[in-house]
Amino acid sequence: xxxxxxxxxxxxxxxxxxxxxxxxxxxxxxxxxxxxxxxxxxxxxxxxxxxxxxxxxxxxxxxxxxxxxxxxxxxxxxxxxxxxxxxxxxxxxxxxxxxxxxxxxxxxxxxxxxxxxxxxxxxxxxxxxxxxxxxxxxxxxxxxxxxxxxxxxxxxxxxxxxxxxxxxxxxxxxxxxxxxxxxxxxxxxxxxxxxxxxxxxxxxxxxxxxxxxxxxxxxxxxxxxxxxxxxxxxxxxxxxxxxxxxxxxxxxxxxxxxxxxxxxxxxxxxxxxxxxxxxxxxxxxxxxxxxxxxxxxxxxxxxxxxxxxxxxxxxxxxxxxxxxxxxxxxxxxxxxxxxxxxxxxxxxxxxxxxxxxxxxxxxxxxxxxxxxxxxxxxxxxxxxxxxxxxxxxxxxxxxxxxxxxxxxxxxxxxxxxxxxxxxxxxxxxxxxxxxxxxxxxxxxxxxxxxxxxxxxxxxxxxxxxxxxxxxxxxxxxxxxxxxxxxx
Length: 487
What we know:
Blueprint: H1 3-13, E1 17-22, E2 27-30, H2 32-38, H3 42-45, H4 50-53, E3 54-55, H5 63-68, E4 73-79, E5 81-82, E6 91-100, E7 106-115, H6 117-129, E8 133-137, E9 143-146, H7 148-154, H8 158-161, H9 172-188, E10 192-199, E11 205-216, E12 222-231, H10 233-280, H11 282-287, H12 290-319, E13 327-331, H13 332-349, E14 354-357, E15 363-367, H14 368-384, E16 391-398, E17 405-412, H15 444-454, E18 458-463, E19 469-476
Helix pairs in contact: 10-12, 13-14, 14-15
């Protein structure tokens, strides 16, 4: 038996697939085991470039080219499949060695491939049923495996994700930081964690937490990385909501401290003035009526403080659902008219004339104190932003709905509200203007809406920048539920 026949017999008896190629990567030998592994007869492969027949994650930098430079290559868990079948689910342990001619020059290479079927099968079953996204990379940092969960998430094929293809799904704002973290960890052979946005199959970017861990061979050689990704978008959203809440809290505390400090400062000055006057000329001060005027001013500031404290208490009650209503038979015209009279003095200070129009009477079942608070908040808001123009308060019977209802409108001629801000001004701490330009806690309209909602009514605004605003409240005149309902 000659040496060629002996070699052919050995190849046929081997459990390993054997492939040989020349310097152009053209296949020169394709063993029967290779035929079985890939379902390709030798006639379909020999004489063709291997990269045109087989798909591997290495592209133009395939280990085959390194073999042509004289290097021996050993790979474990390397994915490979016939190109016409697309990316498959098979991986191989492979060893490639240079084929040298008589003069010692590398004329091609030989590869031995073996399917690690049992180990691969177990690993893939576990990986594909895992709820997290799993990936593996070789010693060159190129990814060689993604589980089915990853592929379902991205909506891409294994071939598209191989190598550095997975990075195409990383958000462009996170891309450089992601790659830098990844490569730095590979260079140092250390565990790493990073967060980045990864494009999902539906085109939406989701935040993922990616953790990679080095893999080592039994002999201590570095074998690459294995990693997992979990979707943390919900957590990121919660963190963002928390930051917004903290920001709102800080803004509220800043505004509240300013609002509380203003009447406190005025009250302290009034009391200091009274004390000094009484020390110098007590009898004259009492006789002239100056004491009465000073105490009147102090009373106004004390009432401002009381109102602010009540608003703060309302926030607590409303947030906990403890705002209860005490319904009684009322004349809305009388209640609103009295509240308007109380607001005339503050309106004059703001340079606004209050005008009230209403029918003789309009009766229903409501909470008197909450209606007074509602009118106070709406009128106070109108005079604050009213630009020294008249403010109209009007009551009418609502004729649009089928049930009996009362309509309350408060109209100013001030700065107006941009349409994009009209919905959010009824939210807690929301403002359509910077707090440095206009005082207030940003709570008046929110409290007003809670009162209206508790009465099962509606509140809305019609406005445009520079054209003033009209707030409309519609309240049912008769209740269909038991009183004392919490808001």
